[in-house]
Amino acid sequence: MSxxxxxxxxxxxxxxxxxxxxxxxxxxxxxxxxxxxxxxxPGGQLTITxxxxxxxxxxxxTQGPEMMEDFKKQAERFGTDIRFGYVNxxxxxxPVHKVWVDETTLIQxxxxxxxxxxxxxxxxxxxxxxxxxxxxSACAVCDGFFFKGQDVAIVGAGDTAAxxxxxxxxxxxxxxxxxxxxxxxASKAMQERVKSTPNIEILYNSETLExxxxxxxxxxxxxxxxxxxxxxxxxxxxxxAIGHVPNTAIFKDWLDLDETGYIKTIPGTSKTNxxxxxxxxxxxxxxxxxxxxxxxxxxxxxxxxxxYLADVGIH
Length: 315
Prior knowledge:
Blueprint: E1 8-14, H1 18-29, E2 35-37, E3 51-52, E4 62-63, H2 64-77, E5 81-83, E6 87-91, E7 97-101, E8 105-114, E9 118-120, H3 126-130, E10 136-137, H4 140-143, E11 151-155, H5 159-171, E12 174-178, H6 188-195, E13 200-203, E14 206-212, E15 219-224, E16 230-234, E17 237-240, E18 244-246, E19 277-279, H7 291-311
Parallel strand pairs: 1-2, 1-8, 2-5, 8-19, 10-17, 11-12, 11-17, 12-13
Antiparallel strand pairs: 3-4, 6-7, 7-8, 9-18, 14-15, 15-16
Helix pairs in contact: 1-2, 1-7, 5-6
């Protein structure tokens, strides 16, 4: 890549998770000669996921990083130009879209497929960061299996937290659910499911002061903000389910975002409010957030881009 390269790409893909790689496979097979800018975490969230058992085509399961490597090889096989870099600025004001990589390199493209994904929110504790991947996780569905028969804690009060707590309860001996307020935000049905699960103990009005452990999680220190009482939980797994932040900040001046930052797309499509710009995967999906749905939306993005180019007469 060079700053003085004046050639205009048919298709630029920003991001490299299941959505981005699938968009690359489809657009490359359609002769769009896509260029992919990977972002700082090539492969996305799945590269920090261990066992993946719910993606079709892997009957014995697979490791997240291995699956993303398979996706990458398939995209490269059809000619995708994959480049490591970070997009820090965009200009979607004209028919040719401008994207800056690593603050210096300008790429121009007729279509842009945004597959920048989302990142988990964290509590911000130093112990949480230190033990991330060593007993601390933001995905119970991904990592709960490793704590079978053990005691764990999960932080959160919404539907996702409630769903993950009940999932963990099927695997674990005991689940402490740490809720900041005196009630949960989850739907009534999800709350009832949690409350009727005997091995889930809800700790209301509570916050985590520290996750305890040197190399792995040994426990958590929790404070009840109503009584001031602190409690030491003896656990081996600590799950955070307080939401996700879509990686979409650089698009806010150009694209319509919802109140939490997810890119709005025309229902049933990957189309944004800017012609020639498409959004796929977790950058626009706050409901499902699964590898298989991200891949499906990546396919939609590539097909929408191909049709757009045909409609404007770019071959």
